[in-house]
Amino acid sequence: MASEARDNTGLLKASTRKRANDARLRAAILGLAILGSLALLYWQVQNPLLLLAFLVLAGTTGAIIYFLRPDNSASDDEHPSFTDWTVTRLVADQAEVGLAITDRAGRLVCANELFTKWFGGPVIPPELPLQDGGNELLATAGRNAWRDGRGQAEGLKRGVAEYNARVVRAGYGDEYLLWHFNPQRRNDILDDAIRLADGATGRALSQAGLLVVVIGGEGRIRASNPGFVLRATGREDANIAGRNFINFLRSDEKGAIFFERDGHQGTPVRLFHIPLNRDQQKGPALILLIDDDGGMIERGKALEQVGSLLSLLPLGLALTDRDGRFLFYNNAFRKISGVQEGEEPLYPGDLVIRADKSAVADAVRRYASGPSMAGDLVVRLRSGGEDPVALGMASIRGLDEAAVLLSIKDNSEEAKLKTQVAQATKMQAVGQLAGGVAHDFNNILTAIIGHCDLMLLRHSPGDIDYDDIQQVKNNSNRAAGLVRQLLAFSRQQTLRPQILQLPDVVADVSNLLKRLLDDSIELEVKHGRNLGLVRADPGQLEQVIINLGVNARDAINASGTNGGKISITTQTVTPADVKALNNEILPAGDYTALYVTDTGKGIPPQLMGKIFEPFFTTKDVGKGTGLGLSTVYGIVKQSGGYIFADSRPGEGATFSIYFPVYKGLDREAPQLPDSSADSHKAAPRKELWGSGHILLVEDEDMVRAVAERALTRQGYTVVTASDGEEGLQHLTSIGEDDNVFDMIVSDVVMPNMDGPAMAREARRQYPDIPILFMSGYAEEQLRKSIDLDNVAFLPKPFSVAQLAEAVGEVLAEHSK
């Protein structure tokens, strides 16, 4: 070693001397050049001062060049002349994820051992043996990585395995792609048991004399440790997966169990059956086998071996004696039952609430002293709240003092799922109730608005009652707006995207939001300049703003401060702004942003990743549905936008929403009404008078009366019916001298026979008769249930003018 170090030192010194000699040679040449220049200059000008100035200038220039010169030695060290992937492969093999590197030509230049093991060799990532379109997802992620520097693909399936991939552009010239493949671990107890038997734990148990087998519900072997394979077949490398477990064992007349291969001279084994799913009578199980040589093995040693095995299992398992005292419990049992560090409970009853102590103690004594049996007991843990858990019990014989095997199942996920289902059921019931109330209220509003219109036709603006009637109509229209919000909440409103300006939607909803805020909370609205158009449903955007505003209000009230401030801001975001955000999710482009900021208590960092999950809420039980932010997230994503949350505890929270600027070829104008007086004057007034024979079918008397008077006043001949059956009677009773109906105006939901059923019967007799349906439900939902052509819809509530206009348009369209 010393001689090798001296050789290396000598080489280093030789290299250093060579560099020094080269430097001296260059300095000598440079000095001679300077002296020659001085001599030539003196011979021409004969001026010593000019020679001195030239000498200073040359020295200064040389110093500047010396200090600014590149370090060639470092460059040579940092940029080798060739690419050696050997070291890269050695480093990549140390990672716990699959790694692969491809170049711009799509060639695989490097891959670690896990990658080749998972995917069957050195395969190019976009051509892996994946299922369900996994390679298409990988190809898209690769293109995104070449373009944006990063890409991602999730849910890549190969057999029972599932992977998430992350692609990063790398290299000095960004000429490579680095592919990361992370396996997704599923919380499946059967998979855990299979890994235990197949892995290092199974080999360690084999050396300790414990044989482990995992069987499925059909009795076939799923996995086993090498000790069992050796005893069952005589070879450790034999493949016994899929074979019947019982075929490897036999029993004699005394009930002793032997390996079939050992014959009559073999050693009996003791078998322990641990069900992996107590909900299935014949489900998968973990089988443990220990040699039982008729008493030569000490019972205490066998118990110690079983305890060592149970400590390695992911199940919550414990052993008690005949008196119910704990002999052993593993870490999973301690964690699920809520046993704190340093706490040592004596009895299983110490883990449950007071009301369940006696039941647990009686059950343990019964299983310990009675015949061998197994069962479950539903209890409530003292640390588990009100959610019950299943405490499994099984009798044990022949393990020294051990008499009862206890198992406990973590029901937290199941309880969480039940709570989510209950919340979803409650929301569905509330939605149906809201939709039904809104539908009935629409009929009342239709009658009120219609009668107001009829009275306004008999009064001029100067009459004493005119303003009062107009006020009633205005309030009715406001009530109609509230009904539309109820229908939107119950998902029974037609949602259509429009080209709009975001500030117009914010202005419309800010008045409603102010009524939802406390007097101590200030609402501030700011709009940026040159905002681009967005394509979204205005009703959905209003719901987004309302949900965020209400959440901000609750956060301010929960902070304990006396009042606060909510800011709603719109702003233009350019591609340069997106780049400055340094956000990997938001792609570069033009956006119109909406920011909602509050001065509440903020969101804790540990909850930031869960706030958009369905049914997640930090409010008290019964005060929050957990669907507010998840609904906001769904609406924003459905509209093609992006939403992010930013918060620091104690400093409030900001929700940032980015909608892509609409760049359609048609360049539509925002589809919002123009409130200017000039636009109203310019709009031509439609002719509402008409003539024709109309059949009006409506089960609500007040709505039918208003519609009949409105149509009669406009010149139509109207025949009314209270349901579909009566309407069909009018159609079939038309004589030769009677006028045939030119049109049917009908409600949708009616007793006896509804509107669609009546319309189908009427079309059999009059195939071309036009039909206008009046309904408070969504047109989109009605069209799914009505398979008829040439039908029109008029949403409730409507005014007299809207009814006359709709009838006129349908008749005019039919006459073409």
Description of the molecule:
With 816 residues, the chain is α+β, with helices and mostly antiparallel strands. Helices cover 43% and strands 21% of the residues. The strands form seven sheets. Strands 2-1-5-4-3 form a five-stranded antiparallel beta sheet. α1 packs antiparallel against α2 (48-67). The radius of gyration is 41 Å and the shape is flat. The termini are far apart. Mean pLDDT is 78; it is low at 1-15, 72-82 and 672-685.
Would you spell out the secondary-structure blueprint of this structure?
Blueprint: H1 2-45, H2 48-67, H3 72-78, H4 86-92, E1 98-103, E2 108-111, H5 113-118, H6 134-148, E3 150-158, E4 161-170, E5 176-183, H7 189-198, H8 200-207, E6 211-215, E7 221-224, H9 226-233, E8 249-251, E9 257-259, E10 269-275, E11 285-291, H10 299-312, E12 316-320, E13 326-329, H11 331-337, H12 354-369, E14 374-379, E15 389-399, E16 402-408, H13 412-457, H14 466-489, E17 498-500, H15 502-516, E18 521-527, E19 534-536, H16 538-558, E20 564-573, H17 575-581, E21 591-598, H18 628-638, E22 642-647, E23 653-660, H19 677-682, E24 693-697, H20 701-713, E25 717-721, H21 724-732, E26 743-747, H22 755-765, E27 771-775, H23 779-785, E28 791-795, H24 800-815
Helix pairs in contact: 1-2, 7-8, 13-14, 13-20, 15-16, 16-18, 20-24, 21-22
